[in-house]
Structure formats: structure tokens, C-alpha cells
Amino acid sequence: MFCNLVKITWYHKAIPSIFISQIICPSMQICEIFHSIQGEGKDIGLPTIFVRTVGCNLRCEWCDTKYAWKGGEEIEIEIEKIKEKLDEIECYRVCITGGEPLLQKGTLELVDILLPTYEVSIETNGSLDISKIVEKDLRVSMDYKTPSSKMDQEMREDNLDLLREKDQLKFVISSREDYEFSVDVLKSFDLRCDIIFQPEESFDIKELAESVLDDGLEVRVLPQLHKVIWGHKERV
Ligand code: SF4
């Protein structure tokens, strides 16, 4: 039970109401909630509800969700209300994305409240500790930032050992340098999860596919399907 009004009643007059509402019902900063097709990774093509959190600790050069860094349409929502919003949509698959979802304390609580009803995945940028989230029965979709992002120095290598078979690791490849960097990471770590090589728009997917075949890599080469379908439209 998330709302515990009884316990705080005796001292509530001393606490500003904005803090009372957070004690009573934990909330999260949410940028947007929308129903679309999963455009990336192993669940590509499947109908999915996206919960996009506000805020990111990185500033990737080619970020396509800059609008999530600071705000969005929804902002502060109680976690139980997020679940209520999702329950209105006919879909049992939820992807928590960002921004960077692991920046918010409420994310683990949101996962716990969703798991009995939904198939949950979470997208994270690879710079924050994932040890708590891999204890949950969900799919972790982690990025490993390549040099073109200018965020490759922020990656936590210790996360790579934590990824399980059902998880996935995604490299966004924008140049030959990114490709070589990604192959080096694959050779340096004994990874159990699926690997996704996703070309950034400036990189030819055919060239990427042919390099993967030439080098005998066991990785999935995937475009961003939502951009194939809807172009650069937001909320898809
Ligand atoms: S981690 Fe994701 S949301 Fe954050 S800057 Fe990079 S691409 Fe954008």
C-alpha cells in the first residue's frame, strides 16, 4: 500500500503540504506516457506502452529525446496514478524509458507495482549502477555509449557483468570508429545478453550489416523501426 495517511496525521500541520503529498503518495517526474510500437531491440515491432521519465545525467551528441532532459507534458505524477493511466490502455507490455529512468527513486517502486500485471522492460544509459534493477523480473535494455556520443567515458564497465541472458546491450553506431569500439567491447567482456548494433542516421545500415557478416559477429543489426514508420515525430 503506497498511501499511508494514518501514520502522518498527528504531525502533518508542521509539514508543508507539497512535502505531505510526496510522503503520502510517492510520485515521479514523467515526461510522457504513450502507446506505440517498440522500435528497438528484441521486442521490435510489438505494441508497447512507453513511460518516459524526466531528466538525464548524460548529454549524447545525437540524443533524439532532448525534450525529456528537463520536462514534458505530464511532470509530477503519483506512482499509483501512473499505473491507473496504463490500465486505461489495452496493452500488457510497458517500457520505462527516458531521459534516464534510474535517476528517479520511484522507478523501482513503479516496477514493483507494474510487474504483477505487465511485461516490463527498462531502458538505461549504462552510466548508472544497474545492480538493483537486475534483481527484478524484467528486461534491462542497456546502452553502451560509443565515441560519437561523446559520453563513452561515462560508461560503467561493472554493469556488463550484471546483464542476464534476457537483457540486451545496445550500441548506437555512427562511424567506423564507433563500430571498431563496439567490437572491442564485445571481445573484452564475456557477455551473456543479446547485442544490438543500431546505426545512427548518418551511418549506412547496409555497410553495418556487411561488416557484421564479414567479422562473423553474433549481434542483431536493427534500425529504429518507429522512425521507419513515423519519421522524426515525437511520442512514437
Ligand atoms: S542517455 Fe539517452 S536521453 Fe540521455 S542524452 Fe543520451 S540519448 Fe539522450
List of distinct ligands in this structure: iron/sulfur cluster
Kindly name the structural category: alpha/beta
What name is given to the CATH topology?
Answer: TIM Barrel
CATH architecture: Alpha-Beta Barrel
CATH superfamily: Aldolase class I
Cα-atom radius of gyration = 19 Å
Mean pLDDT: 90
| CATH level 1 class label | Alpha Beta
Number of strands: 9
Distance between the termini: 33 Å
Regions with pLDDT < 50 over 5+ consecutive residues?
Answer: 1-15, 17-22
**Largest sheet: spatial strand order:** 3-1-2-4-5-6-7-8-9
Specify the biggest β-sheet. 9 strands, mixed
Q: If helices are DSSP runs of H or I spanning 4 or more residues, what is the number of helices?
A: 7
Which sequence of SSEs, written as H and E, runs from N to C? HHEEEHEHEEEHEHEH
Beta-strand proportion: 15-25%
Shape: globular
Residue share in helices? 25-40%
Number of domains: 1
List the helices and strands and how they pair.
Elements (H helix, E strand, L loop, with lengths): L4 H4 L8 H8 L2 E11 L9 E7 L21 E4 H9 L5 E5 L8 H9 L4 E6 L14 E5 L24 E6 L2 H13 L5 E6 L5 H10 L5 E2 L3 H6 L6
Parallel strand pairs: 2-4, 4-5, 5-6, 6-7, 7-8, 8-9
Antiparallel strand pairs: 1-2, 1-3
The structure holds iron/sulfur cluster.
